[in-house]
Amino acid sequence: MIDWTSLLDQLARGVAALSDHNSSGAPVPPYPRETQYALDLIVHECLRHGLTPPAGVPELIQWCTNLSGQQWPFPPAFRLDGLALVTSVQRTRTRACAELAGLANVADELLSDAVADAPDSAARRQLLRSQVLVGPDTHRELLMRNPKAASAFRFVKDLYRPPSDEWVTHGKVALCGCGLPARLDSHDDRLTVWCERETCPPGAVSQLLPAAKALLLHPALRLFLALPAQLEDRLRNGLNAAGQAGHRDEVRFSDGRARPFRCYDRVVPVALARDAVAGGVEIAVVPDDSAMADPDARWAFADALPTGTTIALMTEGELIAQAHPAERTPDA
Ligand SMILES: [Zn+2]
């Protein structure tokens, strides 16, 4: 017997692998090994519960647009309400799927490989967190604006790929105001209708390139490095204003002790809890407007922490409000 979180993770890995395999349109065989394995697991669980299993991968993917449906082999008490691994309209994998599939670890590994032992590791990291879409002129533009970034770009170029079909409309690829790829309005390529962050309203395009000449940052780095970067910057500014200009990943409260924190822009409390434990942080910081700040999500996060582990989930506003001005060390 498999527990529901393991099964959900496995299903998410199956969907994520299929998304890499063929990013849009109906799934076609041969399917990736992870996808086939996820199907086998779900079929097994359905048969064990006396339910009709999905007829194949296309039907399983249909199930994944709403995991609170009747056919799901676990009772609704498992708090899957509203959870989807595939978007029902765009038919792409969701952020929830990426989080459950463990893409945050992939992002951490890609980043550490990209900056390891490099004398310009800070410039490489900064470039990756700020540059999601690149084109034929990017290197020249960086050279004029920031020669260090232009030099770093040469070493991290492998982390950019041609955009997958899901982000190409009429031969163009665009970024939303949030900095992530967006679907363009089919009649007006100055407007977006939907973006990878999933929560942005339709709005103005912030960057637009011909898809044939464009490269997008690796999807794991888009969601788990570039997306939380904006939160990191806001938080850093807020902490600086509170007199905490010290270590970039620590904060001091009134007891004077430094506590490690990390910024997360997430949608699944269980996956956030797992990643925060693995990251060794004491505080997981989320955006003020994040659904993760809702009482239900906070409860689910705390509930998912291993026994004996305490990690505070705080919004950026809560953290800054509690941040105590750093105490001055008296001169010796
Ligand atoms: Zn957006």
3D architecture notes:
With 332 residues, this protein is of the alpha+beta class. It has three domains: 4-101, no CATH class; 104-221, no CATH class; 225-322, no CATH class. Helix content is 42%, strand content 13%. It contains twelve helices and twelve strands. It has a five-stranded antiparallel sheet, with no helix packed on it. Strands 9-10-11-12 form a four-stranded mixed sheet. Strand 10, helix 10 and strand 11 (283-286) form a beta-alpha-beta unit. Helix 5 (103-115) crosses helix 9, helix 6 (121-130) crosses helix 8 (147-156) and helix 9 runs parallel beside helix 12. The model is unreliable at 328-332 (pLDDT under 50). Zinc ion binds next to loops.
Question: How are the secondary structure elements laid out?
Answer:
Elements: H1 4-21, H2 33-48, H3 57-63, H4 95-100, H5 103-115, H6 121-130, E1 133-134, H7 138-145, H8 147-156, E2 160-161, E3 172-175, E4 181-184, E5 191-195, E6 203-204, E7 207-210, E8 215-217, H9 219-241, E9 250-252, E10 258-263, H10 269-279, E11 283-286, H11 295-304, E12 312-315, H12 316-322
Parallel strand pairs: 10-11, 11-12
Antiparallel strand pairs: 1-8, 2-8, 3-4, 3-7, 4-5, 5-6, 9-10
The protein binds zinc ion.
Zinc ion binds next to loops.
